[in-house]
Structure formats: C-alpha cells, structure tokens
Amino acid sequence: MTAIPVTRSIAIDDGELQETATRAGGPGGQHVNTTDSAVILKFDVANSPNLPDAVKMRLVELAGSRMTREGVLVLRGEGSRSQLLNRQEVRERLIALIRDATFVPKKRRPTKPSKAAKARRVEGKVKRAGVKAGRGRVKVD
C-alpha cells in the first residue's frame, strides 16, 4: 500500500480510500451515456488511524453536507471526460480539504477602542453632521 502525503506529519494509506466509477451527468452525448467516467471517493474520517482527533473534528465542520452521519466523507468528481483525470481531481480535493483542517484558527481576543479612537470617531461624526446640515435650505431674510 502506498501512502498519500498530505502534510509533513500526516499521510493517508491508499487502502483507506474507496473509489467507484459511475456515469457522469451533464452534456457529452453518447460518450457520457456509455462510459463510467465520474468518480465517487469515500474516505472514512471517523475510523482513520492516520488523522489526529483535532483534525477529524475540523474536517467534519469543513465538509458539511459531504460528510455522512457515520463519519464518511464523500466526494464526487465528474468535471472531465477522463476517469483518470476525475480520480486525480477528487484526490486533490480530498488532500486540500484535509490540509485546510490542519490549520488551527487563532482565537479572537476582544479589544476595546481607545479613548483617542472614540474621540476621533465622534469628531468625524460631528464634522459630517455639519456638512449635512449645510445642505439644507438657505433662509432668506
């Protein structure tokens, strides 16, 4: 079995991926009607020994509706007429999705604006109000 490198520390065994070929939809005429060029890739995220638990949790969030209740990620590729190109495209999308899940988002620290920033904001609002007030009707005595 060959390992598919995702990051420096994460690699997925080729045996963990299940690929099936089906008929593709959309235009293509007789070629689409006779060949199984679309590829459906299934990857069992929940039972994968090669993914850390934190990456699994973020991957579930990122995958959204592409993840089944059992924790299986299902990706479908049918952009090309070639089954080989569709297989490569789906694998690249899987790798990109796992790489995105490896990044830990920084926690936001709530900050308050300084007194000077508040003063600048109020000053700008007063100035703007003056400009708008000057657009009113002119009183003629």
Strand content: 15-25%
Oligomer: single chain
Shape: elongated
Radius of gyration: 27 Å
Strand pairing plus helix content: what structural class? alpha+beta
What are the segments in which pLDDT stays under 50 over at least 5 consecutive residues? none
The largest sheet, given as strand count, sense and whether it forms a barrel, is: 3 strands, antiparallel
Strand order of the largest sheet: 3-4-5
Distance between the termini: 94 Å
Write down the secondary-structure element order: EEEHEHEHH
The overall average pLDDT, rounded, is 88
Tally of individual helices: 4
How many β-strand runs?
A: 5
Fraction in helix: 25-40%
Key structural traits:
alpha+beta, two-stranded antiparallel ribbon, 4 helices, elongated, Aminoacyl-tRNA hydrolase, hydrolase, peptidyl-tRNA hydrolase activity
